[in-house]
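Q&A FORM
Asked by: J.P.
Topic: structure of Aminotransferase

PROVIDED:
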Amino acid sequence: MSFLSKTLSRVKPSPTIAVTTLAAELRAQGKDIIALGAGEPDFDTPENIREAGKAAIDAGKTRYTAPDGIHELKEAICAKFKRDNGLDYSPAQITVNSGGKQTLYNALMATMNPGDEVIIPAPYWVSYPDMVLLAGGEPVIVETSLQTNFKLTADQLEAAITPNTKWLIFNSPSNPTGAGYSRDELKEITDVLLRHPHVWVMTDDMYEHLAYDDFEFCTPAEVEPQLYERTLTCNGVSKAYAMTGWRIGYAGGPVELIAAMRKIQSQSTSNPCSVSQHAALEALNGTQDFLAPHNEIFVRRRNLVVEKLNAIDGISCPVPEGAFYVYPSIAGLIGKKTPEGVEIDSDETFCTQLLQTHGVAVVFGAAFGLSPNFRVSYATSDDALSEACDRIRAFCETLSA
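REPLIED BY: S.T.
REPLY: Here is the structure written out as tokens.
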């Protein structure tokens, strides 16, 4: 009999972390690797936020806090939801967690029973299905397509709902595609949910402020107020504020659900880092002036990558509305072979050969539930992105039928 839990057999390690780790190992061996797998900005945390963290240390704010966050931060989150999303929450409806991942995990652990289903549009962030499985539920994967710019349609959602459906996990702008739902597109989704009052919505709004061109972010409870009582609106400071390592996520939702999530957290990690909470307080309450300049840089990088990838025979790359990822298709390369005779039979093989022969680390599409694609994070320098795209082109040009 195995000593380890049977539950572990239902899940797999994070592929994005695996790619990042492998790239670091190859670099340590002296190899020239361009890593485009990590989903974190290359900007430093803004100075005012860093200073708030230092001040918290100097003021001795390094002790335990309430299990799911200090009151001042909860008030700042309430103000943020009202200011940015038109949503009214009280501090009793707010949870603060050690990163956005813990927010989602706590919610699933607090609500899932055996046989409960969670609808997850694919491609999805790699952790969604495995968190559902760890919580004892069943992920229901609904594949989107390049033709709809990787967005779930109302008809697809309607067809996926069963009496066992408990949640829809909704992510816009998306990791891994960067696709964002317009207000009209989201209203079609919420109209379906209104017809199924047993289905709740768990949003992942982590890329809210990374919205480009004329795309305007919106979130389900904002678009359809009738869903307010069965929506958990999740967000965090990791991406827009370049605070990935500070590990602060948060959510607003019904009091009963928030209390259940607090119970889970009180018996697992307890409070998020006290210093990080005070830094997050400054992030939400302080100047937002750096957001627009950062987004200008991301737009430039996005355009560079999209243009270069679309110039490669066999690759098709849509233009994303937000986040800092592109999700190109390699359908035109499947079946070709490398000079060594390796057949490109999947996106995983493509990415493995690309890394081994040309030193570019990207994440294969199967990890996100939709193939044949790969994800590029363009949250790195223009020079690195340009060189990486040139290497991808060079690799593709070595492939033959």
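FOLLOW-UP: The chain has two domains: 6-44+290-398, 63-285.
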